[in-house]
Design brief:
It comes from Megamonas funiformis YIT 11815. Keywords: Coiled coil. This protein is mainly alpha-helical. The protein has two domains: 54 residues; 46 residues, no CATH class. The chain has four helices and two strands; from the N terminus they run αααββα. A two-stranded antiparallel sheet has the order 1-2.
């Protein structure tokens, strides 16, 4: 009977040690998952910033280059209102959304 009791105590200690080790590993995995989540959020933020930069208003030259059309053609379409643009201090800027609309019409 004493051997059985000793054997049970040894198994209980082994299980408790195993539980402690598993708890530590689970805590480490949770910390890793939190870091991965944070890094993912940072990547999304960087991607959004890049998209904002890429979606900046275009000059007539930039617009013409993107659509492979002459400067004069784009200027005329802006002048007649076919392509909406904003004039700021004598500088013509075409919203990126106009480029997207233009590409859908082609």
């Amino acid at each position: 009977m004493a051997d059985w009791n000793l054997e049970c105590e040894i198994k209980i200690r082994n299980l408790e040690t195993l539980k402690e080790n598993l708890d530590k590993e689970i805590d480490e995995l949770i910390n890793i998952a939190k870091k991965v989540q944070q890094e993912h959020l940072e990547v999304i933020e960087v991607q959004q910033n890049l998209n904002d930069i890429e979606r900046k208003p275009l000059s007539i030259s930039e617009f013409a280059e993107k659509v492979n059309v002459s400067y004069g053609t784009i200027y005329e379409r802006v002048r007649t209102g076919v392509i909406k643009a904003k004039i700021d201090n004598r500088t013509i800027r075409i919203p990126y959304s106009e480029y997207e609309n233009y590409m859908q019409r082609i």
